[in-house]
Amino acid sequence: MITTKKVRSLSAVTAPYVFIGPSMLFIIVLSIFPILYSLYLSFLSYNLSMPATTIKFNGLNNYMYMLTNKTFLGSIAWTLSFSISVVALNVILGMSLALLLNSSLMERTSNLFKTAFILPMMLAHVVSATIWKLMFSPVYGILNNILMMLGYDKVNWTADTNNARFAIILVELWGSTPFCMLIFLAALKTVPKELYESALIDGANRFRTFFGITLPLIRNFLALVVSIRIMDSLRMFDIVYTLTNGGPGDDTETIGTTIYKTAFRYSDIGAGSAGAFLFFILIVIVTLVFLKLIRRDSKD
C-alpha cells in the first residue's frame, strides 16, 4: 500500500526531472543533436549539387582540405587581427567614454549623452552595416561628399583592401563600443569616492589615481568585457557579409563567411562542417589562453 509519505518522497525525487525535462529536451534537440550531426557530416564527402548516392565517408580529408585552403587560412589571420584590433579599441574608447560620463563635468547631461551613445547598440548588425554601406558609397555616400567639400579626393571604401578593413573595423566599433561603455560606467560606480578623496589629499594626479585605484578595482569588469568581445569579434559574419561580402577578392573574408560560402555557396557541406569545427577549436584555444592570463594576473 502506497502511503502519503512515500508519495511525497517520490514527488521530491521526480519533481526536479519533471521541471528540467523540457529544457533539457529543448537543448538536446536544438543544440547537441545539430552539433553531433555536423561533426558526422565533417567526415563525409557531401556536396549538395551531387546526387545522394555520391555521399561517402572520407575520413579527415575535409579537415586537410580546409587547413590547406589559402582562403580559409587567410580568413583566420584576418579574423584574429580584426579581433585584437577591435577589442583593444573597444576597451580604450569604452573606458574613455565611461570616464567622461562619470566625471563631474557631465553630471547634468550624462543621461542625454548616454542615450545618444547607446543608440547604435539598439540596431541589428545587418541594419548598421546597410546604413554604413550607403554612407560608404563612392558616388552618393555622405562620407565622400564631406571629403570633397574639404578638398580631398573620393575614397573607394570597399574596393581597396586596407580601406575595406578599416571600414569593417569602424562599423564594428560604432556598434559594439556602447556595450563596453555601459559595463565600464557601471564598474566606475562601484569604486568608493573616499578612495579618490584620499588619493587627492596625498597629492596623486588623475593618471596615477586611474592606474592605482580605478583599474585594479574594476579588473573583473575589464576581464568580462574583453572575454565577451573576443568571442563576439571572432564570430564576425553579418557586417562583413553585408558591407563587403568578403571583398575585394577574399581579403576581408572572416572565418564565418568562409565557412558559410564553402557550405552553401559552393555546396560543400562536408568541408564547411569541418571548417566549423576547426573554428570551434580555435575559439576554445583563444578562450583558454585568455582565462589563463586572467588567472595569472589575479594571482599577481
TrEMBL record:
Its main location: membrane. It is a multi-pass membrane protein. The chain crosses the membrane at residues 12-40, 76-101, 163-188, 209-231, 274-294. SUPFAM superfamilies: MetI-like. It holds the Pfam family BPD_transp_1. Residues 76-290 form the ABC transmembrane type-1 domain. Belongs to the binding-protein-dependent transport system permease family. This is Sugar ABC transporter permease.
